Amino acid sequence: MADHVERVRMHFAESAKTKQDAAAVLAAPIVRAAGLMTECLLADGKILACGNGGSAADAQHFAAELVGRFERERPELPALSLATDTSLLTAVANDYSYEQVFAKQVRALGTRGDILLAISTSGNSPNVIAAVDAAHQREMRVVALTGKGGGRIGELLDEGDVHLCVPHARTARIQEVHLLAIHCLCDLIDATLLGDEA
Questions:
Q1: Residues paired with 100 in a beta bridge
Q2: Under a CB-based contact definition with an 8 Å cutoff, are residues 147 and 22 in contact?
């Protein structure tokens, strides 16, 4: 049992260090990403979010914070997770390929000026890569949450996009920073729309 207590403490310590290291790298890009998102929302655009597994949960979390609320009451904001419609996901995966489950939704729902929040811890998820390509076809900007160097997604981003790449190789640590980054994005959007509040 004592060994397990120390193991848990190591997780907390590594998570805290990863977040401190990431803050130095990601603070400015998070501010830029939040600015793009707020600009999009003020222009009556919407934010589409996608990812697999834990990243799918993060996409849903982000959409819930915008459509519902983060920490303050405000009007609903248009955001949608592309990972939640099981009928659509299974139909596209069956009739086309799993690689197309997000891209087809981006092409159907995305319009010029919208934003894609693309989440992949490795940066190499084929269906998220396809979604990034589809977003560029629709003249959307991309905010990418990645880790492990950014992978293929990092290579695909345009100058107008924002890459939030966690400087770590371990999936759990990357996901923990992704969640913090999402909360920062939500807070900055609210601060811009509603005014700064501690």
A1: none
A2: no
Q: What pLDDT, in 10s, does the model give residues 30-55?
A: 999 999 999 999 999 999 999 999 99
2-194 sits in which CATH class?
Answer: alpha beta
Spacing of C-alpha 97 from chain mean position: 23
**Digit-coded pLDDT (tens) for 74-116:** 999 999 999 999 999 999 999 999 999 999 999 999 999 999 9
- Nearest-angstrom CA–CA distance, 50 and 120: 9
Q: What is the 3-state secondary structure (H, E, C) of the chain?
A: CHHHHHHHHHHHHHHHHHHHHHHHHHHHHHHHHHHHHHHHHHCCCCEEEECCCHHHHHHHHHHHHHHCCCCCCCCCCCEEECCCCHHHHHHHHHHCCHHHCCHHHHHHHCCCCCEEEEECCCCCCHHHHHHHHHHHHCCCEEEEEEECCCHHHHHHCCCCCEEEEECCCCHHHHHHHHHHHHHHHHHHHHHHHHCCCC
Banded pLDDT at 60 (limits 50, 70, 90): very high
Q: Where are the domains of the chain?
A: 2-194
How many Cα atoms occupy the beta-carbon half-sphere of 25 within 13 Å?
A: 18
Residue 78's identity, in one-letter code, is P
pLDDT at 196: 83
Contact 129, 155 (CB under 8 A): no
